[in-house]
Amino acid sequence: xxxxxxxxxxxxxxxxxxxLIFELIMVLPHPNILFYQVDQVMxxxxxxKEFTRQYNDWWNLFNLGKLVLIIKxxxxxxxxxSARAHRICTMYGFQPSYIFVVQSMMRxxxxxxxxxxxxxxxxxxxxxxxxxxxxxxxxxxxFTYDTWNQSIWNVLVTMTTVGYGDVxxxxxxxxxxxxxxxxxxxxxxxxxxxxxxxxxxxSSLEIKALSTVxxxxxxSQVRWMAATMLAxxxxxxxxxxxxxxxxxxxxxxxxxxxxxxxxxxxxLDDTSTIHEEFHRMIVGCLxxxxxxxxxxxxxxxxxxxxxxxxxxxxxxxPID
Length: 320
Description:
Elements: H1 2-14, H2 16-27, E1 39-44, E2 49-54, H3 55-62, H4 66-76, H5 83-91, H6 98-108, H7 110-133, H8 148-159, H9 172-200, H10 204-237, H11 244-295, H12 297-315
Antiparallel strand pairs: 1-2
Helix pairs in contact: 3-7, 6-7, 7-8, 7-9, 10-11
């Protein structure tokens, strides 16, 4: 009794019983043979007619809750929720959760996660809207959901926030599903924006490379403008009287040259800042290595001995 009470106390105090109850609720619903071909009479407010729905359609609709368990299994089996990830996260003062797994997947492969989420939502809601609206084929004459094409099209235009209005749910269940679908569409759209932003955003190394390319291009432009300016001045100096339009043209070239030179000097300032930062990083690394070798003098002696033996082996020639 004591052991059982201890485990029950741990299950209740840890809050794991809530997850257990939720998973049981997700697993239990399934179509029952007792409700096979048992119909339920319902009334459509929009069409003003009665139609019948099988009770097993409700169980098939509740079966979509098992998708939560599949997603949970994918999260738990990922490397971001492994025992090693738990140890590393504990070292940094927090416990990994499903939100942490989603954040890690988005950082690792944002487009893959977004496409997977959208396709899963599209197929799931298409199945749900088809189950809820398919019985209206008995009384509807304009459009029905007896095919997958119609339901997929409805979910697609709803989740992408387009909403053409050519097809729409006409039952209370279908409207609630469409209401939930709108939130999933907004979330998938935001994920797509984040994925696009991660692709367009440049890293620090890419910014440095872009700055170097711009500096080289600006230097070539400055050289070309300087050569053009000197050629025009030399040509004008050979004339006794310089026309007014030549004077204005030379003055414009000089002004353009000064502006291009200022741009080039600003790029040089950015490059010098990058070099200074890199120099500080190298100096910091050398200081750490120096302090490490001072605190481990024996290790420094071993490094010197290995280096000496390596030079001796290089100087020795093979004997025939």
